[in-house]
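Example 4.3 (complexes with small molecules)
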Amino acid sequence: MPIQIPADLTIVTLRSSGRELTQRWTDAYARSVLQGASDLLHARADIEFRLGTCERVVEEMPSGAQADTIDDAGYHYLAAAHGAGNGIRALLVDRVSRAELGGQARQQTRVCLITYGADLGATSRMFAHELGHLLALPHVDGARRSGPGQEREIAAWMRNLMYSGALNPAAELTAAQVRLARSSALARRFGGR
Ligand SMILES: [Zn+2]
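Answer. The structure with zinc ion bound is encoded below.
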């Protein structure tokens, strides 16, 4: 039996100076991207993310945060305003100030941010990568050094779902990563060990 984790989706449109900013996520596309991410993690780690709720909200960023994109202050504001329910929550936003906001806070809040991408496969992999972080997986290339001598490791890292750079369609997970994900605090809430 796969571990089944509920995923609540919140499409967040920003409002600034009284008008709503661009939001390219649609409900149908959000569901397709979640399905793609879930299929990938099901195939690699026997962990599924099932759609819970899907809602749309309009938010104005607080003072101290950038108004027209999501920055770290914006992430913390949204994660507090739209906390996770039983499983995880993905905040689907049109754009972010930089990749991977929230850092270490993501694992505690079980809230991740997914920025819009027009390519379904690439956006699903990015979502699966963020779900990997919620499942306690760090970047596979965290121990990267500069200089020669790591060519073989780097080639393997680049095929891994938890690579810090652009994600390869292979999106591999090692046996050790699968064990770690299935025994993470998030997975244990839903029967993992
Ligand atoms: Zn990452």
